[in-house]
Amino acid sequence: MTAWFQTQFALQAQTRGFHLVTREVVSYLDEIDRIQTGLLHLFMQHTSASLTINENADPDVRVDMETAANIICPESMPFIHTCEGPDDMPAHVKASFFGANLTIPIANGRLALGTWQGIYLCEHRNHGGSRRVVATWHGQPKASER
Questions:
Q1: Over the stretch 119-134, which tens digit does the pLDDT of each residue have?
Q2: DSSP class of 67
Q3: How far apart are CA 146 and CA 144, in angstroms?
Q4: What mean pLDDT do residues 53-78 have?
Q5: pLDDT at 146
Q6: In the predicted model, what is the mean pLDDT of residues 2-19?
Q7: Stretch (H or E) spanning 85
Q8: What is the pTM of this model?
Q9: Whether the Cβ atoms of residue 122 and residue 95 lie closer than 8 Å to each other
Q10: Taking each helix axis from N to C terminus, what angle separates 88-98 and 59-72, rounded to the nearest 10 degrees?
Q11: How far apart (Å, rounded) are the C-alpha atoms in residues 93 and 73?
Q12: Options 2.60.40.2470, 3.40.50.720, 2.40.50.140, 2.60.120.460; which CATH number does 3-140 get?
């Protein structure tokens, strides 16, 4: 038997940059502890922010990620789509590079992230606001839940 769960939530508004949100995401996954083996899928419902997994210990990594993203896609590029400001089109490009979704294994009721891994909200706009996420998880329930 496979159990399925789904919820929608809004991550707190963040300034432009890469923000560790693992604890915030997990706080919305009430029934995850019921899953022995499964998968979590996270889907960001926006085109100017993204999700990724990276270093969770040294905050310098988040600064360097923002620096690298801005070098790869600077606001100074000659974009045509500029009606929402100079940070809008670069935000769309960066969101496509990093992606709108993640799939993370679940093991014994917890996310099976590596020791140094965390979930990032990549906020590519100067003032993006709160970001909506759909979380869907499923898997084999623990023996005590069957």
A1: 999 999 999 999 999 9
A2: H
A3: 6
A4: 97
A5: 66
A6: 97
A7: none
A8: 0.95
A9: yes
A10: 120
A11: 7
A12: 2.60.120.460
Please give the single-letter amino acid code of residue 73.
Answer: C
pLDDT at 144: 81
Residue entry with tokens 């400001």: 85
For 95, the enclosing helix (H) or strand (E) is helix 88-98
Both tokens assigned to 10: 């809004």
Confidence of residue 22 (pLDDT cuts 50, 70, 90): very high
**Residue 80 in 3-state DSSP?**
coil
Q: Which token pair is 31? A: 């029934």
Per-residue DSSP letter, 12: P
The one-letter amino acid code at 133 reads: V
Tokens read off for 45: 């419902």
CB atoms within 10 A of CB 89: 19
